Amino acid sequence: MKSLSASAAPHASAPSCGAPDAFSRGLAALAHPARVEILRYLAGVDYCCCKDVVQRLNLAQSTVSQHLKVLLDAGLVRMSPQGQRSRYAVDVAALRTLCEAVGALATECAVRADEQGREMCRGDH
Amino acid sequence: MKSLSASAAPHASAPSCGAPDAFSRGLAALAHPARVEILRYLAGVDYCCCKDVVQRLNLAQSTVSQHLKVLLDAGLVRMSPQGQRSRYAVDVAALRTLCEAVGALATECAVRADEQGREMCRGDH
DNA sequence: ATCGTTCATCGTCTATCGGCGATGAACGAT
DNA sequence: ATCGTTCATCGCCGATAGACGATGAACGAT
After folding, report:
1. Do B27 and A31 touch (CB under 8 A)?
2. In chain A, which among 87-106 make CB contacts under 8 A with chain B?
3. If you classify domain A22-114 with CATH, what class do you get?
């Protein structure tokens, strides 16, 4: 009953909460400076193997590989094995989609807040 | 808050990257379904105390308080103590700013990828 | 066949996250 | 003064993230 974490809610299923959706995974992937740096680096080079990122970021190769895997799972980069290397490339469309999702959330919040923003200062309920 | 660049601590022995900037904190705050739900709920009501969110989300009060604190630290919500309650409200401007930061990252990646996307054929396409 | 390179994965470690209950402070009402 | 309510914080716990080194597979070159 205590171990819910993402599956079993104590009482009833939580409202739209509890699933690691694409939105959450995408944002979580972006919520790390190293991964943002990887993305920007990937966009700036024509082809990119893991080694290049390692030299760029001054991190261990295994660490970089992990970060790339996170970005891959989030759908923000694509990978095509090429010989003994791995060609990584930014999925610009996915990045845009994620950006639009954030924008949609911001817009929704703005609209809903504006709909009744004037009476926010009543002080009672 | 235009500093998107991850400073990428040069030394690898550091446990973390050492630069939890506003961008990372904001995205990390959004990267949890419960917190997104809190944001949307906050935007939809004129007045909101912690208790309301607790009933809404079916989470323990302490858990909700933690989530609110995360959102607060990320600057996405504002809080004003009001009597024994705490009035929480979405900071729409901050949300927009964060959204624009994501957009800037997406645009930068798109531009840089487009600048040489056509000539990325070094050997094969 | 052998070697060097590249990369993904495994194991380990520490720090943090995310959940909870319990506690105490602050405040309004009785 | 006392009680009830609300909230933030603490301690605890399991799970995850993020770092590393080591290992082995895949591949090109010798």
Report:
1. yes
2. 89-90, 92, 95-96, 98-99, 102-103, 105-106
3. mainly alpha
Query: What number does CATH give the domain B22-115?
Result: 1.10.10.10
Instruction: Check CB contact under 8 Å for B8 and A37.
Output: yes
Residue ranges per structural domain of chain B: 22-115
- Tokens 């974490």 locate to A5
Compute CA distances B47 → A2, A120, A123, B75, whole Å.
31, 6, 8, 18
**How many C-beta atoms surround the C-beta of residue A87 within 10 A?**
17
Give the pLDDT confidence of B61-113 residue by residue, as tens digits: 999 999 999 999 999 999 999 888 999 999 999 999 999 999 999 999 999 98
C-beta within 7 A of nucleic chain C, residues 46-85 of B: 59-63, 66-67, 70, 81, 83-84
* Cβ atoms of residues A36 and A30 within 8 Å: yes
Q: List, for residues A100-116, the tens digit of each pLDDT value.
A: 999 999 999 999 988 87
Is A84's Cβ below 8 Å from some Cβ in B?
no
- Closest CA of chain B from A50, distance in Å: 17
